[in-house]
Every structure is written in structure tokens, then in C-alpha cells.
Design brief:
The complex is a heterodimer. Chain A contains 4 helices and no strands. Chain A is mainly alpha-helical. By secondary structure, chain B is α/β, with parallel strands linked by helices. Helix content of chain B is 30%, strand content 25%. Classes of the chains: A mainly alpha, B alpha/beta. Chains A and B meet through helix 2 and helix 3 of A and helix 1, helix 6 and helix 7 of B.
Chain lengths: 74, 351
Amino acid sequence: MSAFREGLAEIFEIPPAEIGPDFSLIDNNWDSLAIVSVIALVDECENLMLDGPALAKCETVADIEALIAKARGD
Amino acid sequence: MGEAAADKPGYSVPGVALRGVVSALPARRVTNDHFRAAFSDAEIGDVVKMIGVEARHWVADGETTADLCQAAAVRLLERLNWAPSSLDALIFVSQTPNQRLPATACELHGALGLAPSCQAFDVSLGCSGYVYGLWLASTLILAGCRRVLLLAGDTVSRMVDPADRGTALLFGDAGSASALEADAGAAPIQFVLGTDGGGAKNLIVQGGGFRAVAVDARRGEAYNPDHLFMDGGAVFSFTLKAVPALVRDTLARAEVGVEQIDALVLHQANRFMLNHIAKKAGVGPERTPINIDRYGNTSSASIPLVLTTDLAERLTGAPMRLVLAGFGVGYSWGGAFLATQPLGCAETLTL
């Protein structure tokens, strides 16, 4: 998951250390541009295609990671 | 058709040659500074980082897609030394016609002085429209037409909401004209085409039609139905799913490896998306021309605009093996593999 978290840090333009499960997306400009960036990031890191509307409902990094686990069939 | 292989999606159309392409841009060039009145530098910076658009050309009041396409057509016919009376068909692909009726193609037929025996009709497609236009032109030639003029373009700037930063900066205006001709010696053009109507509501302008405007919770109360609505996340996921498969299917249809093509010409949707698709398709940046920085997303004109800008010199100088891929509004997509002989003309006009 580390490549994923590094990618997230790049998208939100913050140091990777600040990306934890509780990192709030909604307080950090979680708009359509951020969402499509995350879709591409997950496609690249995990070879999984997340659903845009489901991703838009995520509020924290943990929510995204749960969505990835679900898409993976964990 | 041709040597159609039953196990592969798509079609082969033999006996059709692309002779030339001209694109036409409106005179008014709009850089990102234009948007500083409406958005902060940070807001503009975010969008530009993603979409990659630095400048685009926009039509003036009263200037339409038909005007751009007409200028491109006049130049193309002149360069190829084709008499207007020698054309058998004119296809106008656009979602920004002059009016609801008659078909803009009929007006252009008159303006270009084409023969009464020349058929003319409109096709309402956007991002996939150029590939569909090539497909239609090619099948008309297979059915007996000798020369077909394909006009494709859009003026999406006339439909965007200036307050919606996701779309306001993205689109540019352009028109194009392509000449196709019967040629028994031409290598077959391979096509893969598809549609997913479930995506219709994700990229839409509801105004101007005849069905009552539907309520959609994703749009604000103040939504103007004459403005373009785009669910960027939904369109993006569709693209990432559909386009790598489209490129793969088109190559399989043509029985060529990805390393054998000279260029992958993608609809210029968004730079971030293009880089991602090129990477997934296994084509390096040197074979995936991108001009969205200079012209924005020009809808149905984006593929011919790449042909007449970044690839013009090579297309007129040597044979090329190209994969073209258009995808988006509909959802609709089309891929084409064509092996061109040196074109008689590939140029870009700025009006």
C-alpha cells in the first residue's frame, strides 16, 4: 500500500508522512480532479478500477483503502 | 467485409485511401490568463496540472463550426486539386451544428458548390466522431462512392459554463476536413466501434432538444440546461476501462503488434488521461503525440488536429501506420488502424 500512499501525498501535495488512515479527504479539496487522480493511481498501483461515485463518498484514506479491499475481493 | 475474422471484434474496409487533412482554428487565442477573473491562481493551477491545457482557440460571436470546416475544406480541395463537382458525399460530424434543421451538411454542400448528385448528411457524435466519420466515409466508398469529404469539428466553448472550472478551461474550438478516395491498392482500414448508452447522462447538454430537461441531483439548482454537464470522475473511469481495450482490439484486428505502429493518435481528452492510457497501452510518449497544451480538447476535431500539427511533416513525407482512438460523449468509442501513403496535404490554418 506504500506506493498508493506516496501517490496520495503527491495528489494532495503534502509530505507522505502526513498520509495516514485518518487523513481527511473532505478537508483537503476532495474534488473531481482529486477523485480522478485517485482512480488512475489505484489503477496503476493495484490494477483495479474504482467506481467514481463510491470514491466520491469516501471521507478518509481508510475509506479508500476499504474500497480497494472490497474491489480486490478481500 | 473483406477478410473479416469472426473471432475478432470490428471490421475491415479495403480499397479506401486517405489523401489529405486540413484543420482550421479560429483566430482568437485564449491563454489561461483569461480565467484569472473567475478563478484563483491555485484553482487554475490544479486544473492545468491535470488537463494540461495552456492555450486554446475560441470562435468569435457569430462564427460556427461550419465556418471552420468550410475554410478547411476549401483549402483541402485546392491543395489536392479536387474539383468540388468530383465529390460524391459530404459528411459533417459535429455536436454544434448551425441549427436544428436543415442538416448543416446541406448548407455546406451549397457553400462549397458541390454537385446535385453529391449526398450530404450530419452525424451527431463528439469525441468518437472522427473515427465514426472515417468508418462511414470508408463504407460509402466500399458501396461505390469515389470521393468523400469528411468534415468534423466542434465549438464546445459556446456550451461550457464559465463558472465550472472542470470544463471552462478544458475545451477549444476547431474544424477539420479530410479527403478520402477509392483506391484498389490501399491497405484495408480496420475499425473497432462501440457504445455504452448507460453513460449518456454523464456528459450531456440537455437544452435544445425535445425531451423535457430531467432533474439530476449531481447538478446544482442553478444549472442551465444549455451548458455542458460533465461528471468527470465517471467519464474518467469509463475511459480508463474502455480505451486500453479499444487500442488492444484495434491492434488485434489489424494483426500488428504495438511496436509496429508509428503513432497512437488519441482523442485529446485530458493530458493526465492520455499519459495514463499510453502507458497502459505500452506505447511510449514519443509515439503518442499530445497537443492539448496548445489547443485544448477540441472534441471531434482533436484527432485530425493532431494529424495536421504534430504529425503533418511525417504524414506528407512517408508512409505511416497509425492507430486512431476516439472516445467519450455517448459513451461512444471508435478505433481505427490505417496504413497511409504520403498525404497530398496535412496542414493547419489559423483563420
